[in-house]
Amino acid sequence: MRLYFLKRLGVMLTTLFIIATVTFFLMKLLPGTPYSNPDKLSEQQLASLNQKYGLDQPLPVQYARYLGNLVQGDWGVSFQFKGRLVTDIIFERIGPSVLIGFQAMVIGSIIGLGLGILSALRQNSLFDLGAVTMAVLGMSIPSFVFAALLQYYVGVKLGWLPPGLWEDYSYSILPSLALSVTVIAAVARFIRTEMLEVLTQDYILSARAKGISEFGVVWKHVVRNSLIPVVTMLGPMAVSIMTGTLVIEKIFSVPGLGEQFILSIMVNDYSVIMGITLFYSTLFILVVLLVDMIYGILDPRIREKWGEST
Amino acid sequence: MRVASKRFLCFVTAVLVSGVALAGCNFGSAGKNDASPASEGKQGEASAVKQVLNVSEGAEIATLDVAQISDAVSSTVLNNINEGLFRFDDKHQPILAIAQEHKTSEDALTHTFLLRDAKWANGDPVTAQDFEYGWKRVLREVGPFGVFFEMAGIANADKILQGEKKPDDLGIKAIDAKTLEVKLDRANPLFLPLLPLAPFLPQNEKFVEKAGDKYGLEYDQVLANGPFVLNDWKHEQSWQYKKNESYWDAANVQLDEINVYIVKEPSAAVNLYETGKLDRVTGLTSSLADAYKGKEDYQKVATPTTIFMRLNPDVAAFQNENIRRAIGMAIDKESLTDVVLNDGSIPLYGLVPAAFSLSPDMKDYRVLNGQLNKGTVEEAKTLWQKGLAEIGQSGLATSMIVADQEYMRQTSEYLKAQLETNLPGFKLKLKTVPFQQRIKQEKAFEYEIALSTWGPDYIDPMTYLDMWVTGGQANRMKYSNPQFDQLVAQANKELDPRKRYDILLQLEKIIIEKDAAVVPLYQYGEVILQSQKIKGLIWHPSGPEFTYKWTHME
Description:
The complex is a heterodimer of chains A (310) and B (554).
Chain A: H1 2-28, H2 43-53, H3 59-71, H4 86-121, H5 126-140, H6 143-157, H7 173-199, H8 202-209, H9 214-242, H10 246-251, H11 257-266, H12 270-298, H13 300-308
Helix pairs in contact in A: 1-12, 4-5, 4-7, 4-9, 4-12, 5-7, 6-7, 7-9, 9-12, 11-12, 12-13
Chain B: H1 2-24, E1 52-57, H2 72-81, E2 86-88, E3 94-96, E4 99-104, E5 110-115, H3 128-140, H4 147-151, H5 157-162, E6 172-176, E7 179-183, H6 191-194, H7 205-211, E8 228-234, E9 238-243, E10 257-262, H8 266-274, E11 280-281, H9 286-292, E12 298-311, H10 321-329, H11 333-341, E13 346-347, H12 365-369, H13 377-391, E14 396-403, H14 406-422, E15 426-433, H15 435-443, E16 449-454, H16 462-465, H17 482-493, H18 497-514, E17 519-530, E18 534-535, E19 538-539, E20 546-547, E21 552-553
Parallel strand pairs in B: 1-10, 14-15, 14-16
Antiparallel strand pairs in B: 2-3, 4-5, 5-7, 6-7, 8-9, 9-10, 11-17, 12-16, 12-17, 13-17, 18-21, 19-20
Helix pairs in contact in B: 10-13, 17-18
Domain Solute-binding protein family (chain B): 94-475
Family (chain B): Belongs to the bacterial solute-binding protein 5 family.
InterPro entries (chain B): Peptide/Ni-bd, SBP_5, SBP_5_dom
C-alpha cells in the first residue's frame, strides 16, 4: 500500500511539472505585455522594463529561471500589484473563497442528499416530482440569477442580510446560499438515480430477507453503495467551488481568488497566472487522491486492489 | 478495518475544519477593527451629519509606491494622502500647496520654490531634499511615470530615460531645507500643470529606505503629508482615510473619514447604494441607468476617454480625402450614444473631449472649436461617390479590428450597420481581438480600420494632439503634416497662455476639419448616482480621480 502511494506521488509531481511547462509557454503566447498602460509605453520604455524584469531573455532561459525559483519556493512578485508576493496574493484571497465554497458544499450536500434519498424512496410520488423539478431548475438556471435575486430581495428589500462586501460572518451567507443551489441540484440528482439502481439489486433483496430493519437496509446498504459516484463528483466540484467562482464573488464583492485569476490573464500578470494555476492544480490532484481514499472506505474491494498493486 | 476508516474520517473532518479556520481569518473591511464604529449612513438619520464619506472603486490599489504607480486608483489615494509643490483646484488648475512661493527666472528655465512649514505624519518636516530624493528615485526605479519628467522638460530627463545619463543628473537641487531649485531644458508651458501629478510628490528617504521592499504595499508602509492619512487597507476589500491632523491646512479639511469599498459589479454597487452603505456609485449599465433616470441622485459624467477610428493609409481608398470625410459624416453619432450605448457617452466632433480643458478665459475647448466635420448622410453619400470615382472603384470591402470589450462590440456593430447602409458598396468585416492584440496590430500596421481609444496623460489639450506629429509613438497611422508638426513645436514653447491656446485650437482643425485624417466617434461617459449630502467633491479628468480635501457632508 505504501508503494501504491509512492507511485501516486511520483505521478502527481510529473503531472504538476507538465502543467507548469505547458502553462508557461501557452501564457507567453498571449499578446501584449504585463505592464499597465500598454497604449502609452514607448519602445524604449518597454525595452528598459523588459530588461528590469528579465523578459528580454530568450524563453527557455526565462522558463529555466522560473522553475529554478519555484523549486526554491519563490513564486515571484505580481506585475499588476507591483511588488506584492504571489504567495501573499493567493493566501490572502483563498480564505473567503474556501469559506463560501465550503459552506455551499455543506449546505448543498446535506439538502441534496436529503432530497435525493427521500425522492428515491418515494419514487414517482408528488414529492419526487417536486424534487426532480427543483433539481432540473437548479442545474439549468445559472447561479448568478439566484445571486442577483438573493442580493436584491434578501439584501435590499428585506434587509435581513448584507447585499455585498465582506465584513463579518453574515456577509458570507448569501454568497454561500447562491453557490449551494448548483450543489443541491447535482447531489440530489446523482444520489436519486444511483439509489434507484441499487434498490433493485439482489443483495438488497437478500438483506431484507435476512430481516434487517428497513432503516438498516437503506442506511447501511443502499445509501453507502450509492455514495461512490456522488463522492467522485463532489471531490472535483469542491475544488472548483472552493478555489473561487468568478461570478458569485464579483456579484457579492467577495475578495476571493476566482476573480483574481481571470483578471491576471487579462493583464498578462505572468507570475500570478502561474501561481494560481499551480496552486489550483496541486489542490485538484490532492483531492483526486483524497477521493480515491474515500472510495476505499466506502468499498472494501477497492482497498484490496491497493494491496494487489504492491 | 472499521477503526481504520473511522480514523480516516476524523482526518477528513480535521482537514475541512482547518479550512474553515483559515477562511475565517480574512473578515472585516477597512477600519472595522477600530473602537469607534463607523457610521452606517442610514438614510434619514436625523442627528448631526457625520463627516464620513462612503464610496466605491472598481479596482484594487495597484501600489502606493510613488516610483511604481501608473493607474488612476493609486494616483487618487496618493493625491489625498500626499501633497507636492502644487495641487489641483476645483477647475483642475495647479495651485500652490507645499510650495508657498514660486519664482521663475527671466529665461523661464530656472524655477525656485520656497516650501512652507509642513510636516510628514511621523513629525519630520517636509524638506526640499524630500523632493530631490523622490524625483530622482522615480527615475532610478525605472518607474512607469518617469516620462513625466521629460514631458515637464526637466533638465537631463530625456538623457536619463535614454540611459545616457544617471538619475542623479536630473535638474533638481535642494538649495537648503526650504528652497528647491528646478532647472529645465527648455521653457515649457506644461511644467506647472504637471507638478500636481504623482511622480512629482516628495518622498521621505528615511521612511522609504526603512520600508524597503514593502514600501507602498500596506497602509502603514506609506507616509502621509497631505490632507488625509491612510488608516487601513484590506487588500481587494476596502481602504480607509482619516483626517490628517498634522496637515498644514487641516483647518480647511472637513471630512473625518472616507471609506472606499471595492465593488466590481455595478448592480451590486447600486444595491449597496440603496441600503445606504455607499454615498456614490459609478458606471451604471444601460438598464440600471434607465431605472434611475429622472431621480435627483442621477448624474451623467463625461469622461475624457475618446473613441475614434484609425484609417490605415496603406489602404489605397483611405488616402482619398473624400472617402475619409464621407466615413465620418455617414455615422449618426447621436443615436450611437443615446440609444445604442445609453451609458452617459456623448458624441465627439474633434480630438479633444468636452469637459476636459478650459481656455485661459475659462471657456471649454470643445465649445470654442465646435463640431468639426459634422455633415449629413446626403453630404456623405455625395463625397463617397466622388471619392470612389477618383480612385476608380465601385465599392470598398474593408475590415476593422475591435478590442473584445462589450461597449466596443456594440459600437462596432452599429458602425458596420451605419456605414453599409449609408455608403452604397461599403462592406465592413469586424475582427474582434484582445485589447493588447489591438495595440500590437496598430503599431505593426496590421489593420485596415482600427476602433481605437485614447485617454489623457495630463490635463491639457496637447495630450490628444501631439500624438499625431510625424513619427509620433502613438500616431500608428503614418499621419504627417509639416504645418501640424511645426505648430506643435511652436505651442510647446509658447509661454503666453492665450497665444498657446489659439495654436491648440488650430491644431485640431488641421487634422479633423482640413485633413479629415481621423474619424472621432464619441467620448465615453458614465452614469453615476451621488447622494445629495455630498458637497464639494472634486472629480478630475486625468491623473488622480478625486480631491477630497474640500469635500463635506451636509
